[in-house]
Design a protein that fits this description.
Length: 155
DNA sequence: GCCAACGTTGGC
DNA sequence: GCCAACGTTGGC
């Protein structure tokens, strides 16, 4: 059963264009340092699951689609003292942080702004729209996913 | 830049 | 196990 997700990134840090121009259009989703977000990647994400790609901060919007290309494995950036996401409490023999690989699927011709999503019928319950929602990896229902894809193709 | 909403840390 | 202090996220 395909599941559906939303993954956030600051485009100044890593954008959907960065993903589209990666070798094989695949990137490890490293640097997540939140247990809830980690657990979704570690325990629930499966190969082929679909991902709404979300840009935060500059112009908050869903900008395209990606898919899970590799299931969870340790986030090695936690092992590198020179990496900004280095975590001494996540040693190689007992890793604390995990990540998946994500593959580019599609960039929407028109991104769907957060502000607009708030007005769409059927999305009222979306985790993303919850006040104070800060999760960078979160589940999306199939119906929410379908609605968003349909609108993205209409516009 | 502000600030609300969270998550984490650490003293007790 | 509680909770205050602190740091971070992310919309505005």
């Amino acid at each position: 059963m395909t599941k559906y997700w939303l993954m956030k990134t600051e485009p100044g840090c890593y954008s959907i264009d960065d993903l589209a121009t990666e070798d094989k259009q695949i990137t490890p989703w490293d640097g997540v340092r939140n247990y809830q977000a980690r657990n979704f990647m570690k325990d629930d994400m499966e190969l082929g699951d679909m991902v709404l790609f979300y840009h935060s901060v500059t112009s908050p919007s869903v900008v395209g689609l990606a898919e899970v290309a590799r299931e969870s494995y340790p986030d090695h950036t936690a092992w590198n003292p020179d990496d900004p996401h280095f975590d001494p409490k996540s040693p190689e023999d007992n890793p604390r942080w995990f990540m998946v690989d994500v593959k580019f699927v599609e960039k929407f011709s028109n991104p769907l702004p957060l502000k607009f999503l708030r007005t769409v019928k059927g999305l009222e319950g979306m985790e993303l729209l919850r006040k104070g929602s800060r999760l960078s990896v979160m589940p999306v229902t199939e119906s929410e996913f379908d609605i968003i894809c349909r609108i993205a193709r209409e516009s």
